[in-house]
Write a structure and sequence with these properties.
Helix content: 40-55%
Largest sheet: 5 strands, antiparallel
Radius of gyration: 26 Å
Structural class: alpha+beta
Distance between the termini: 49 Å
Order of helices and strands: HHHEEHHHEEEEHHHEHHEEEH
């Protein structure tokens, strides 16, 4: 275990390096921070921190920089989440409240996160499998053609065309719409198959084929494998940190183009808390020089998706964690009210 003083030295090194982009020396630390000890003692503490792998010497200068291990300890033990100011909170709320639909909410969230953190922002669309049904609409387009519209509690709207095996009258369609919503509205998607399995039996024999076809389309919509969609923004922000990436930012950009990689980075939505993955904790090799700060968002206290940012390991962790958490909270509120 590190002593309290060495923890304070590590905190000071991280703060200075993030702020100045320059390796930090013992003289600068004692001048900038009230550590209450001599530069010689700070040098000894820095040597101990280096021996234990928390800081490293990038070249032959006297300065040191944090390692992934040092950032990890800083995040776990030393960094409080920086709260947003009242004007910042109002700005977030006003910006997001202007959204007209789910796509607009996600687009605004990406733009806002990228601006607040000056990193790359990634927002996952709410997952269907973790959503509940708000309403199912059925619209007649032709005697044997129906549009099915599924609306979720998160404001997501899915539309499907259904070609029916036989003409289906308006009265029958209205009956199916009413019966369907009475069973599934407000229920989890995972419960829907069981709730509708005997619904065709409630209709006349000549209509059961059409009812079964509509239900099959609904169930296919609920379990679609391509439901995991993402929006990404602020990639140009990486160019401001060119010197933070050992050789080139190309591997980072290539990794950010792969949706599967980003979904894995964000992690499971069921974990609602702020998660920070630093450097080599990211399994994808192209992202070993980055950190990912993510958090779940949703309505009713349950996470239905994740949002977060990707940036260099030399990151303002308290500020980034605070921004990500605040934006997620407002997005959840908007979804709950939509």
């Amino acid at each position: 275990m590190l002593s309290e003083r060495r923890l304070q030295v590590l905190r000071a090194i991280v703060q200075d390096y993030v702020g100045t982009e320059e390796p930090v020396g013992s003289k600068a630390l004692t001048e900038r921070h009230n550590l209450g000890v001599s530069p010689a003692t700070v040098r000894n503490d820095m040597a101990a921190l280096e021996d234990e792998g928390f800081i490293a010497q990038p070249h032959t200068s006297a300065g040191r920089i944090p390692t992934d291990k040092g950032y990890r300890l800083f995040v776990d033990k030393l960094a409080g989440v920086k709260p947003m100011t009242a004007p910042e909170r109002r700005a977030i709320q006003n910006f997001l409240e202007g959204a007209v639909d789910l796509d607009d909410v996600v687009a605004r969230t990406v733009r806002l996160l990228a601006q607040l953190t000056r990193q790359v922002a990634v927002v996952q669309y709410p997952s269907l499998t973790r959503s509940t049904v708000r309403h199912v609409e059925l619209l007649s387009l032709a005697p044997a053609r129906v549009m099915l519209v599924l609306i979720t509690d998160t404001g997501r709207v899915e539309q499907r065309m259904v070609d029916c095996p036989a003409p289906f009258g308006e009265a029958s369609l209205a009956d199916l719409r009413a019966r369907l919503n009475s069973r599934v509205a407000g229920r989890r998607f995972t419960d829907v198959p069981m709730l509708v399995e005997d619904l065709p039996d409630a209709f006349d024999p000549e209509d059961r084929g059409t009812v079964s076809t509509v239900l099959s389309t609904l169930l296919e919509t609920l379990v679609e494998e391509n439901e995991e969609r993402l929006m990404i923004g602020g990639t140009a922000n990486l160019t401001r940190f060119g010197h933070d990436f050992p050789l080139t930012i190309r591997p980072v950009l290539e990794a950010l183009e792969e949706q599967v990689v980003l979904l894995k980075l964000l992690g499971e939505a069921k974990d609602p808390g702020v998660t920070v993955r630093i450097g080599h904790e990211n399994a994808h090799e192209g992202l070993n020089s980055t950190s990912v700060v993510s958090v779940g968002y949703g309505s009713g206290g349950e996470a239905v998706a994740k949002l977060g940012v990707v940036g260099p390991t030399r990151m303002d962790y308290p500020g980034t964690m605070g921004a990500v958490r605040a934006v997620a909270r407002y997005v959840g509120q908007i979804l709950a009210e939509s």
